[in-house]
Give the backbone structure.
Amino acid sequence: MLLQVERLDVYYGAVHALKGVTLCAEAGEIVTLIGANGAGKTTLLRTISGVIPSRSGRVTFEGRDITRLPAHDIVGLGISQAPEGRLVFANLTVEDNLELGAYRRKDRPGISKDREEVFRLFPRLRERRRQSAGTLSGGEQQMLAIGRALMSRPRLLLLDEPSLGLAPLLVREIFRTVREINQRGVTVLLVEQNAHMALSIAGRGYVLETGHVRLEDRAERLLQNDEVRRAYLGG
Amino acid sequence: MSEFLQQLVNGVTWGSVYALIALGYTMVYGILRLINFAHGDVYMLGAFFGLYAAQWIGAADHPTPVRAFVVLVAAMLGCGAVGAIIERAAYKPVRRSSRLAALITAIGVSLLLENGGILVFGPNPRFFPQIVPSSQISLGHGVSISNQQVIILVVSTGLMFALRFIVLNTRVGKAMRAVSHNHMAAALMGISVDRIITFTFVLGSMLAAAAGVLVALQNPKIDPLMGIMPGLKAFVAAVLGGIGNIPGAVLGGLVMGIAEVLVVGYLSPSYRDAIAFVLLIVILLVRPTGILGTQAAEKV
Ligand SMILES: Nc1ncnc2c1ncn2[C@@H]1O[C@H](COP(=O)(O)OP(=O)(O)OP(=O)(O)O)[C@@H](O)[C@H]1O
Ligand SMILES: [Mg+2]
């Protein structure tokens, strides 16, 4: 098992945001996490990445307990995240953003090679490499956020609503790229509100509801599930 | 005319000192949204560390350029360490508390350094040794500049370019910019946000220390409260240029230095300290974001 989350409890002050969440991802999978606004999806990804502390429960990655590790060390172990809202460094260039994605790495040739790979996945970023990230369109910023997350050579990639605010055509392009990234051996944990798209590229899925895992199944079965269809697929 | 030029030379000299101090305020603000009110006192410590270093290596009795340089570096290293200690011991514990808690902490640290200074260095002014024997250089038309002013200008300009290089071109500088943009996003890159914050305090404190030594070359009377006024003025300079904005701090410092000598020269020396506050009020009324500052547009 690549990633294992066991009975995780997270609070924001008095708000109990995650209530005993258990979830896992096997190497090579695309696992999706769907749920309504406020269900706790972002909280879960942030806790895995170590930017939010958990009160109880455990996160293990490749058999190693990472629950209490600081965020910057978790990146070094091979988990990276393209966060909700993209959070690209607006005043830095596209290239500098990518370079920061590789902050923990020292292998210069490897870094340039991976940057070329990001430019191959997202050719628009190459054209805009010296432009400051704040001047990119929303879709380009999302590409940059994903590309930047790839620069640390993750084995697990956490994506928080990559389709947010993007036109349908662009959403399809992003999802195609996510699948390609996965085919190169990167395990993906994908948080989405666009449940249809997410379930169509994922192998398995979890439905999160007010901090609980409500359902867990193979993606094609979730697509057929009445409850899921009603709540997340618009009938 | 020559009178005006002479004032301008003096103003730019003072301005570059304010700029050095203002950079520390603005970098810390950029990264923590905190006004480090103890920063002026770090400048004071720089002068005292310089004094002790000068006595230690005998730069006072046998001044040489190398010894003067050693004094400068020693003061910068000493204050860099003090900056790191202040950040770790005082500010880090309250980082997740309210801004009011951070503000009170800053004022507390400032009082601690001032009163600790009185305790350790004594309440009376001390004389900073002549580590660079003074001489005047004539620029013609009745305008002259002292060699000490030249040193102030050259060293502060050099330090500002060094800072610019660090911030724009190095790995740690890019990490500083990432942290100042968004702590969480920076942490997700694998940047140790804590370490970058400490580094920022170290850099700012080193610049303040350099300012302390440079000023002491010219005004050798130093005392534990000497940091209060320049600290306030440099803070105003940082606000003037746009707090959080590095070129803004340099511009604000120069404007402050020039405004000050013009007021002294053409109005009255007794208004010297008042001009800082006039500038502060004017900028807050006319352009609260400062000359080069932009509206805080992050966190959409
Ligand atoms: N910083 C915070 N302080 C207090 N409560 C928070 C904070 N962040 C999130 N919450 C609360 O925690 C719960 C889970 O929020 P979270 O952002 O994880 O949901 P989400 O599933 O990602 O929602 P969305 O689809 O809108 O992004 C919500 O009830 C939210 O109000
Ligand atoms: Mg969310």
In short: Residues 2-32 of chain B form the longest helix (31 residues). The pocket of adenosine-5'-triphosphate (ligand 1) is lined by residues A 12, 15, 17, 35, 37-43, 84, 193 (CB under 6 Å).
